Amino acid sequence: MAKLSQDDLLAQFEEMTLIELSEFVKAFEDKFDVTAAAAVAVAGPGVPVAAEAAEEQDEFDVILEGAGDKKIQVIKVVRELTSLGLKEAKDLVDGTPKPVLEKVAKEAAEKAAESLKAAGASVTVK
Q1: Which of 8, 26, 95, 119 places its Cα 20 to 30 Å from the Cα of 35?
Q2: Is pLDDT at 38 greater than 60 in this prediction?
Q3: C-beta of residue 74 within 8 angstroms of C-beta of residue 123
């Protein structure tokens, strides 16, 4: 059997799912009677990890796309959501698209989006 280079091994690990990688680590630990906790941390941040992290998103941004016809109502809602002053809230609404809330829980993002939409604004939750 030909000896694999480090790059070849990394290429193989990159194609593995997290479950396959976990099973490999357990088999490696059993075979050589070692603990590979550090190796998991190094090998873990591959493409599969990023894909799973995107699926389990727990922080959302509420982006104000436009104020619509009721700009004053939208400014009031922005002030309630952010505790900004009148001038800052007006500048935020005038400078759309801009984030109103960043890195908030899903429930808070949905509630904020509903409030802004009820005031006549167009909103995106990312």
Answers
A1: 8
A2: no
A3: no
